[in-house]
Specification:
Number of helices: 6
Shape: globular
Distance between the termini: 15 Å
Order of helices and strands: EHEEHHEEHEEHHE
Helix content: 25-40%
CATH class: Alpha Beta
Oligomer: single chain
Strand content: 35-45%
CATH topology: Alpha-Beta Plaits
Radius of gyration: 17 Å
Strand order of the largest sheet: 1-3-2-8-5-7-6-4
Number of domains: 1
Amino acid sequence: MNVRMGLIRQQPGWSHETFSRYWLEQHGPLAARVPGLAAYWQNVVQERLQRGIDYARGPWDVDGFSQLTLEAAGAKERPFAEGALARRLIDDEQHFLGGLHIVEAEPVEVIRPDPQQRPTLLKRMSILRRRPDLDEAGFRREWRVHADLVRAMPGVAGYRQNVVVARERVKGRPCGYDELPIDGIVELWFESTATLEAAFGSPEGRRTMAHAKTFLAEITAFLVTERRIV
């Protein structure tokens, strides 16, 4: 099942704490009512540093990532675009968000984080843009190669690739690549920031990043706190 991911900005003038609490306590329960929702995670950004990597950072600046997975039957009903609940969600988003882009992605679980350890792990999410001399097929091919390199890195507790297949720069309005040039979103889990930096500083990590430069133009990294709503 594909995952619907929101790249969100908090409302200007709101504190980070107010935004985070509202998203969890008010908007979360509302979005959890979407028919056919199989999973819903909120990822609140805590840090905007390129920890462990020396790489061009993209223009993206978000305060959170939402991840919603629909059962196949529910996905056909357009629950985010039609009906009273969809209208309530949009009204609420306009109340507490200052910006929202949507991507639909195919998730590829390379290293599954241990469910028991996951609540204590550090999570990093990164937005990827491919090199301009590479097409979508070439990006997918090289990212598959990249998965094996990441798998060999020490200390990686979890790794998921989300390959973007559809985009909405404005929610509900499909757009082309040039309007929202995001090719993938990475999820990585580590025990700590020290483990993260050691992983990328290892010989395996240096080989991984050398390969990244052959197919990626930008990596925009964020440390997040993840919260499961559904």
